[in-house]
């Protein structure tokens, strides 16, 4: 029986290792190239039945070899095809050379290709392995194809997209469809690569799944199968205390809305009890808007310590609307390593005091979840943020190891990372999730899962995914209040 590989994400290096291991196991690598090229041809015929001509652009490596197989298969199907090659076609080696020899069409230099009306470009130039900026010849061709409105079908990944980081290497084709093999690569899910791929088809070319698993690192696409077994399902014996008590810290008067969003989301996301801890001047504001969520006055360190000693509190959210400064730092340190989602102002409060935060949660089980957006990540991890050689996954993993925290590196391509090197890339968030207050809702959802005893990394991953699902249920035009109310509708079925 095949092992499931649908959530695996292989880097280009890992995919190359899978190809090599497959060949060593006795599977002819040319057979894999044949299957890949024919899969691309089938996709081209399926998606572009009205094409007047397919222009197959072939690069100098195995991606180009896939292209020569594609051109042969399209010709056998009766399509009109032209083939253009990059650089010296006589320098091809191995399977790519053999694929060229089997192709019945005489290849022409790439510079001779003139995009015409009715063309479809099959981009087999570089694929996922490109790590340097594309040459000027390709930049000009990409611009010409785009200006003339010629659709592009990409082989493995649109040329110009870094398969490891998802970044654009100078310029890149914008494909309407991409055909990749065995698994997706980080560049298919990270931005801007994801926006350049169009619809992605993953085709199994016959590499044994055991080999794919053997070379795979710890990066996955975030999905319920990875954490659903840890999400508690209420039973007949369940009561509110078994579902955890979440505490959300409020900011001062006039800045209380963000905490209430977190608290409301936490309640809907399954916490048995939720309390907003507020300073005296914010009590009236919060009381006027809270019903099922409880309210407790916490003004200073003495009040916080007393509350921690007397109340059964399971997890905490600090940051939304709280204010930046010493009070935030003191409150975090007073929590003494308890499960905590640190968001927004809470993160920024430690930007010049990083060692205090890192030391407070160093060692032992991971109890801290940090939820920075791009700017907050740069303030807390400036060296990582400025390293152009690192992709978003690598930055998030490095930050997680540095802090012994689960990192939720937010964005349209949110990455969730653990100190042990695991990383999940999230892809289910709809565009309308980018609205004021949505991050506050996410903090509350993760906090609710922490309060129910879900480990920090899985709580973060589940919270991010369910946040996207809540947005889909709320629909376009939603507000953060709508999102908070939709936060828990699918938690029970996932159990």
From TrEMBL:
Binds 1 potassium ion per subunit. It catalyses: (6R)-NADPHX = (6S)-NADPHX; (6S)-NADPHX + ADP = AMP + phosphate + NADPH + H(+); (6R)-NADHX = (6S)-NADHX; (6S)-NADHX + ADP = AMP + phosphate + NADH + H(+). AMP binds at residues 410-414, 439. Its EC number is 4.2.1.136, 5.1.99.6. Keywords: ATP-binding, Isomerase, Lyase, Metal-binding, Multifunctional enzyme, NAD, NADP, Nucleotide-binding, Potassium. Its cofactor is K(+); Mg(2+). CDD domains: YXKO-related. (6S)-NADPHX binds at residues 62-66, 127-133, 156, 258, 321, 373, 440. The keyword ATP-binding applies. Residues 223-494 form the YjeF C-terminal domain. K(+) binds at residues 63, 123, 159. InterPro entries: Carbohydrate_kinase_pred_CS (IPR017953), CARKD (IPR000631), Nnr (IPR030677), Ribokinase-like (IPR029056), YjeF_N_dom (IPR004443), YjeF_N_dom_sf (IPR036652). It comes from the Bacteria. Residues 15-213 form the YjeF N-terminal domain. NCBIfam families: yjeF_cterm, yjeF_nterm. Belongs to the NnrE/AIBP family. Homotetramer. Catalyzes the epimerization of the S- and R-forms of NAD(P)HX, a damaged form of NAD(P)H that is a result of enzymatic or heat-dependent hydration. This is a prerequisite for the S-specific NAD(P)H-hydrate dehydratase to allow the repair of both epimers of NAD(P)HX. Catalyzes the dehydration of the S-form of NAD(P)HX at the expense of ADP, which is converted to AMP. Together with NAD(P)HX epimerase, which catalyzes the epimerization of the S- and R-forms, the enzyme allows the repair of both epimers of NAD(P)HX, a damaged form of NAD(P)H that is a result of enzymatic or heat-dependent hydration. This is Bifunctional NAD(P)H-hydrate repair enzyme.
């Amino acid at each position: 029986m095949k092992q499931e590989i649908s959530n695996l994400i292989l880097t280009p290096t890992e995919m190359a290792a899978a190809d090599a291991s497959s060949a060593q196991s006795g599977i002819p690598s040319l057979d894999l190239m044949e299957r890949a090229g024919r899969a691309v041809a089938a996709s081209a015929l399926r998606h572009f039945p009205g094409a007047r001509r397919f222009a197959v652009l072939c690069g100098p490596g195995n991606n180009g070899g896939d292209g020569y197989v594609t051109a042969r298969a399209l010709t056998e199907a009766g399509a009109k095809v032209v083939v253009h090659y990059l650089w010296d076609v006589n320098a091809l080696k191995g399977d790519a050379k053999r694929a060229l020899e089997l192709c019945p069409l005489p290849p022409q230099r790439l510079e001779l290709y003139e995009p015409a009306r009715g063309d479809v470009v099959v981009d087999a130039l570089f694929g996922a392995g490109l790590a340097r900026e594309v040459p000027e010849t390709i930049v000009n061709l990409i611009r010409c194809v785009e200006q003339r409105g010629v659709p592009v079908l990409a082989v493995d990944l649109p040329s110009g997209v870094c398969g490891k980081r998802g970044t654009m290497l100078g310029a890149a084709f914008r494909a309407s469809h991409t055909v990749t093999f065995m698994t997706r690569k980080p560049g298919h899910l990270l931005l801007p690569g994801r926006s350049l791929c169009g619809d992605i088809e993953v085709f199994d070319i016959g590499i044994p799944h055991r080999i794919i698993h053997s070379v795979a690192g710890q990066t996955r696409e975030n999905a319920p199968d990875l954490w659903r077994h840890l999400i508690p399902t209420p039973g007949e014996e369940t009561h509110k205390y078994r579902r955890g008590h979440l505490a959300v810290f409020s900011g001062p008067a006039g800045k209380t809305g963000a905490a209430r969003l977190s608290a409301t989301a936490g309640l809907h996301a399954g916490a048995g009890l939720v309390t907003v801890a507020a300073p005296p001047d914010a009590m009236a504001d919060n009381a006027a808007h809270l019903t099922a969520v409880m309210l407790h006055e916490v003004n200073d360190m003495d009040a916080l310590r007393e509350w921690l000693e007397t109340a059964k509190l399971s997890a905490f959210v600090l940051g939304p609307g709280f204010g930046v400064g010493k009070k935030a730092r003191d409150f975090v340190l007073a929590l003494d390593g308890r499960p905590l989602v640190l968001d927004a102002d809470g993160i920024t409060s430690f930007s010049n005091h990083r060692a205090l935060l890192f030391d407070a949660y160093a060692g032992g089980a991971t109890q801290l979840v940090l939820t920075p957006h791009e700017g907050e990540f740069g303030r807390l991890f400036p060296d990582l943020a400025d390293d152009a050689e690192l992709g978003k996954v690598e930055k998030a993993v490095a930050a997680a190891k540095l802090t012994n925290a689960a990192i939720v590196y937010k964005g349209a391509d949110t990455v969730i990372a653990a100190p042990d090197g695991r990383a999940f890339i999230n892809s289910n968030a709809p565009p309308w999730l980018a609205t004021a207050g949505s991050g506050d809702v996410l903090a509350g959802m993760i906090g609710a899962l922490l309060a129910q005893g879900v480990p920090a990394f899985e709580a973060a991953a589940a919270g991010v995914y369910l946040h996207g699902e809540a947005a889909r249920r709320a629909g376009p035009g939603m507000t953060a209040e709508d999102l908070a109310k939709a936060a828990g509708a699918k938690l029970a079925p996932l159990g």
